[in-house]
Amino acid sequence: MILIAHESLSRATTLVSPLRGLVAEWAAGRRHSDADDRNAAMLAGDRAVAGRWSSWFRSRAAPLGEGRPPPLGAAPQARGLERIRSAAVNGARLLRQSVVAFGAALIVSFWIAAFTLAYQDRAALHVQMQRDAGNLALVFEQNVAHTVSDLDRGIQFLRWARSHAPPNVEWPDILAQDFVSNRETAQTSVIDANGYMVTSSALLRPPAPMYLGDREHFQAHLKSKGDFLFISKPVIGRASGKWSVQFARKLTDSAGQFAGVVVISLDAARLARNYGELDLGPGGGLALVGDDGILRAGSGMFADVIGKPFGASGGEATPVAGQPDSGGANPSGLVTVERRVDGAPLKVVVAVPNEENNSRWLTRRYAYYAGALAASILAVFATFAVALRRHRSEQRIMYLARYDALTNLANRRHLGEHLDALFALPARERAFALHIIDLDRFKFINDTYGHPFGDMMLKRTADRLLALSRPSDLVVRLGGDEFAIVQSLRFARIEAQALAERICRELAEPFEIGHAKVVIGASVGIGMATEDANSASELLKSADLALYAAKADDKGGFRFYDAGMTRAVHERADIENGLRWAIDNEELRLFYQPIVSLEEQKTIGYEALIRWIRPELGMVSPLDFIPVAEETGMIVKIGDWVLQRACADIAALHTPMRVAVNCSPLQFELSDVAASVQAALSRSGLPPDRLEIEITESALMKNNQRVLDQLRRLRAIGVRVSMDDFGTGFSSLSYLERFPITTIKIDRSFVQKLGERDGARATIRAIVELATSYKMAALAEGVETEGQLKALVELGCVLAQGYLFGKPRPIYEIWQSQAFPPITANEKMRGAA
């Protein structure tokens, strides 16, 4: 339902002028018009709404405490003071806003986040730089170790080659083989026991003796008894003229005495040549340092201090044998890592700038600070923008809480407030009616054309209802496709009836939306405040009940509430609640009415009829509780119980009687009747051909394919099927052709007219002949007189039931009132297809 509030000020909610002066003048004049509106308004609720919206407009004219303009004759100084005072008040209000404190906290959080991120980045970068420097030191150390190992193997190979060469092969011949070292990177020399160079890869046969006995590598082996690889400090080679590092091992004669040394001189720059082009940043570099602290090779900051003590380069590192140092920033702003060279008296040192000198970290740090600054500026602007708009937002929320967003009409909450205000008035002033309007075909149209089309339909409906109502009426959207109008009255029911007629007539007119032209219609329920209720909730309930009755009578009409509607609702609710426990409490009973064969004049079976016996109220008519059971879906549970009970009762008889059980159309829609029948037959042991399922024409009209499938399954197991009340509804011969029907039951209305109208005999004869043509049995219901019985026999009807043959009785009393004896087991049961 939809409620539409037709109030003079509700339409002005979006008409706020941006010019503050004009709004202020309008608000000042509005104070006088508000008084007129309040005198014209019907109710206090309308007056309150009008006053609230007027004050809202005035608050928009002077937002956030802006003072009223000074009198026109005031001095300019007074105006200046007023402006200063107004600005101070506005500033104070802004600072008192909770959103300002939130904004300040947000700004602080921005800077905390910026400093935290910068610190975390710095720590992460420091760890990464330590890791990178350590990895580079590892690679450098392995490369140096590999180079030293290769040189040492070359020296040892030369010694082996000399010891295994024939006597006539000299050292120059051995070196000439050129398999020891690369002449571009190293020079191989042999020095005899007296310190003179015998040969070298640069000068295989020196023209003049060259004394090298004063060299460190010669002296070291001369004075040593052991055999080891000696690595000298960087020196300028006398043969090569370049800075070089000598790798030397001693030579011994056959007696094991000192016979000289084999030396490989390596260019100091070549030791770090693969890393010389690495850019390790300002102050960074690689160094190869001996255990004596002298720099053997280096790059970067160490390239110019080869041959000097390591400390002269400005770098500092703490050696840790075989492992990299812990790294860290030293006084020169470097992170240094050193590793010992495996198998040699050397260590490698890697120095990189620390994070304070890292451009990436500096860039990111300033980016964090700039982001915090930008976010703080935005937070300041956003805080003040939110504070300025807060009043408007609150007013908008209040509006949405009381008005429908789609139609801009009052909603259910507004209706409740309005009705409460009306019932707060003295009883003699409660001259109003509540119309609740429900659109009859809205769901179909909404499903057919889509929700956007349905929304447009609701808007058009709201417009029509507004056009039908008066300024003193309140039009509301309750929700969905329901509307309501609170109508002020002067002549009670006459006016309410006239408005309801206009509503039904107007909403029955076609709606043209786009290219579609649709007819929807409406039903109206009317509750009168002076007659039907003492509170808002009672009036809403009364109008709802009247609407329910209007829709039940005929869609497109209206109904006034009467007390009988409440009684009917209470009775229905009582029946519904009682039915939920009727089976468990054994309040349901089955009565059986005889079915007789007119040819044999014997009882061949019974129709099971359900009865409800309530302990406090006695017998409840099936006409009262079966519709309720169908509406609530309890008919499925009740129907299963009836099948189980009827099959069990008839199976317990000593004669081969059959039983007919009525099934509701809803049972076929909501459950599997065929499965329920099979379960009842299996439990009771009753043969299928002794059970007959009665259906009505309405069951065949609704979802007939589903019904057809279930009926075919019933016939497949041998269960009979009869059509009840044939000829009273939309009877169609196609039903007899399509559906597996075995019996046609002639409605009692035709039987009762026998002897009164000649047409009744013709109708029954036609039905009997039709049944015979389709090889079905015809059963007449409601036979009460001998005359009716005689006429049915003359017309050829083979089966009958009615009070003439016995009233419905419990199973244990069926023999007491049977007019015809029951058929025996040896007799053939006739009249069955």
Provide an overview of this structure.
It contains 24 helices and 26 strands. The protein has 833 residues and is of the alpha+beta class. The chain has an 8-stranded mixed beta barrel with strand order 18-19-21-22-23-24-25-26. Strands 1, 2, 3, 4, 5 and 6 form a 6-stranded antiparallel β-sheet that branches. A 5-stranded mixed β-sheet has the order 12-13-11-16-17, with helices on both faces. A hairpin with a 4-residue loop joins strand 1 and strand 2. Helix 4 runs antiparallel to helix 7 and helix 18 runs parallel beside helix 20. The longest helix has 67 residues. The radius of gyration is 56 Å and the shape is elongated. The two termini are 54 Å apart. The N terminus and C terminus are likely disordered.
Supply the key terms.
single chain; 833 residues; eight-stranded mixed beta barrel; 24 helices; disordered N terminus
Distance between the termini: 54 Å
**By helix and strand content, what is the structural category?**
alpha+beta
Q: Trace the largest sheet across and list its strands.
A: 18-19-21-22-23-24-25-26
Major β-sheet profile: 8 strands, mixed, barrel
